[in-house]
Specification:
448 residues, 0% strand, mainly alpha, 2 domains
């Protein structure tokens, strides 16, 4: 039997990359207090340990998708797994917070070659819309499983072996995925590969880096500090140059024509909004549970487990709803659950019942479980298969942009306050994000 006749094994192999990236995020969040103590890192240093990773992924996802369409999706996927494993191992050896951030950047370069390329492989393997929606639902379920395993496993490893061990486990999984990819994933390329866009790539990276840098460093240095002003200014100038440059380029880094599709545009905005809320929520929750509540890393990981359990349950349900043409139900349910969970968190304190927190976390997991599949499906459905790499990369980029902004904003709104007050304030912003998902989802799924 040929590789191409085993779509299930192709899907399983591709899902390993999502498992690695998703679990890495939740494990690192649980380990943040331990990393801060061991490396004497400030809150903004911890923010950079998360955002240094997500920023690089967001900046290079589209380039990775284009590279995969040109030189081969399987080849780029395997290179990404190798770089990710090397970066993970080096993170475990980091002597300082600056070293950790640098090695997280290397890890992210590998991560940028994983999920969008894997999604492109899936889209080209599952060509029927219903099968594709179900495959994407499975993809979402894997995200939930990885998220579920991350907090308790990360907490256990931090308390027993140390925070450095959270990076060790990536290495054997990535190496195993390289072998499986060679065995089961067929090589594929776009019939007409896109040209590289180095100027657009540089401008896009400057926009993201400048904006996030200003948001993270602004509270510490002062909003009128020259470095902060320069970061905001650089981001603004780069954005002002990026759009007109991309409009006139034959094969741009960011295919602006995709945004003429209302479902695609809505998917991008919803991804940014929902992942901003989710990432900021995870970042502050870990610090709140361990530093404000005094829970161990293991107990904090278990306390956050309801997020992932409900995400696992709701992701395939969302896939079935999308496959049945009921994406609106999934999006409205996602926004409502996210908003309700966030409202509950606006009233928390150091003595808030852990059962109450578990309910709020479970609702947030429902929101994330329902929102992911319709976002991904809207982004890639209706696009030509030869542009699947670029479309899926843009969808993945929007998630990472949202994650970066969420962590940056979470630290900004909480600067100079306790973690309790920080989480309360951010929860009001997350409530607005949930309402936005409802409104955009209804608009995007109306009859045309």
């Amino acid at each position: 039997m040929t590789r191409a006749s085993k779509p299930g094994l192709v899907l399983a192999t591709c899902c390993i990359s999502l498992f690695l990236v998703a679990m890495d995020v939740t494990i690192v969040n649980v380990a943040l207090p331990a990393i801060g103590r061991d490396l004497h890192a400030s809150v903004d240093g911890l923010q950079w340990s998360i955002d240094g990773y997500t920023l690089v992924i967001a900046s290079f996802l589209v380039l990775a998708g284009s590279m995969a369409d040109r030189i081969g999706r399987r080849r780029v996927f395997q290179i990404g797994l190798g770089v990710f494993s090397i970066g993970s191992f080096l993170c475990s050896l980091a002597p300082s917070i600056h070293g950790l951030v640098a090695f997280r950047v290397l890890q992210a370069l590998g991560g940028a070659m994983l999920n969008p390329v894997a999604m492109s492989i899936i889209v080209n393997t599952f060509t029927e819309p219903r099968d594709r929606a179900r495959a994407i639902g499975t993809w979402g379920a894997v995200f939930g499983i990885a998220t579920a395993l991350g907090p308790p496993l990360g907490g256990f490893l931090v308390d027993t072996v140390g925070w450095r061990s959270i990076f060790w486990i990536n290495v054997p999984i990535a190496l195993g995925a390289i072998v499986l990819t060679a065995r089961f994933v067929p090589e594929s390329r776009a019939p007409t590969p896109r040209r590289f866009d180095p100027i657009g790539q540089l401008l896009f990276a400057v926009v993201l880096a400048g904006l996030v840098s200003a948001l993270i460093e602004g509270p510490r240095l002062g909003w009128d500090a020259p470095l902060v002003i320069a970061a905001f200014g650089g981001a603004g100038i780069a954005f002002a140059l990026l759009i007109p440059y991309e409009r006139v380029r034959a094969q741009p880094l960011i295919e602006l024509g995709f945004f003429k599709s209302p479902p695609f545009s809505a998917a991008i905005v919803m991804a940014i909004v929902s992942f901003s809320a989710f990432s900021g929520f995870l970042f502050l929750s870990s610090l709140y549970l361990q530093d404000a509540r005094g829970l161990s890393a293991t107990r904090a990981g278990l306390q956050m487990l309801p997020i992932a359990i409900t995400l696992v349950i709701c992701a395939p349900l969302s896939g079935r709803l999308v496959g049945a043409g009921r994406a609106r139900y999934a999006l409205v349910g996602a926004g409502a659950a996210m908003a309700l969970a966030s409202i509950m968190m606006t009233d928390l304190g150091v003595a808030t019942s852990l059962v109450y927190l578990a309910v709020a976390y479970a609702l947030f997991g429902i929101g994330q479980g329902l929102v992911n599949t319709p976002i991904t499906n809207a982004a890639v459905s209706g696009m030509p298969k030869e542009q699947a790499g670029v479309a899926s990369a843009l969808a993945s980029t929007s998630r990472q942009v949202g994650s970066s902004l969420g962590v940056a904003i979470a630290g900004t709104v909480g600067h100079g306050t306790t973690f309790v007050e920080s989480l309360q304030t951010f929860s009001w912003l997350a409530t607005g994000c949930g309402i936005a998902v409802i409104a955009i989802g209804v608009w995007a799924t109306r009859q045309r």
